């Protein structure tokens, strides 16, 4: 019972009604889509390349007729999977010299990560779509005292998702012109993202499988 109350209390701070395919449906009826975006090493580019990237990004922002949010998540790097991979290679290594070198390398990695706080950054773009017609949740139709049928609500939701997908395509194309790669998060990845945000000490696997390479 205590756990149930704790879960219900935590859900009050998450204004998400449900996850539908590649879209988040918020409590107010609006939709959101989240795109994971790669990074580029801006410092290693020449001055001409940097200017070109900035110009492309500026042009991209100027073409948008809707708002978007850029979200950066920073977290401490988990080195354990890499150490486990090295441990497996060590156990299957037949050359004694390579076994010793692998073991020494593992110790170096352990000591290095203990003394240096290595952080990883993941970049996201949140694309919104707000519909004026909210049906049962309020808005113009409710003001007139009319209610949409279940079929009409489903059709309206699908139309909103299509409009949201159009916006996502615009954002993805604009970002690709600046040399960035994008991945639109789907159902499992969206759930994984918010689970990890509200439960930073726990790990799940769905989101990790969709990392940009």
Characteristics:
single chain, 213 residues, alpha+beta, 2 domains, 6-stranded antiparallel β-sheet, 7 helices, 6 strands, 18% strand
The low-confidence runs, each spanning 5 or more residues with pLDDT under 50, are 133-146
Strand count, sense and closure of the main sheet?
A: 6 strands, antiparallel
Strand content: 15-25%
Q: Estimate the global geometry from the Cα principal axes.
A: extended
- Domain count, please report it: 2
As a percent range, the share of helical residues equals 40-55%
Number of helices: 7
Radius of gyration: 23 Å
Kindly state the mean pLDDT as a whole number? 80
Number of strands: 6
Structural class: alpha+beta
Distance between the termini: 43 Å
- Please provide the ordered H/E string of secondary-structure elements: HEEEHEHHEHHEH
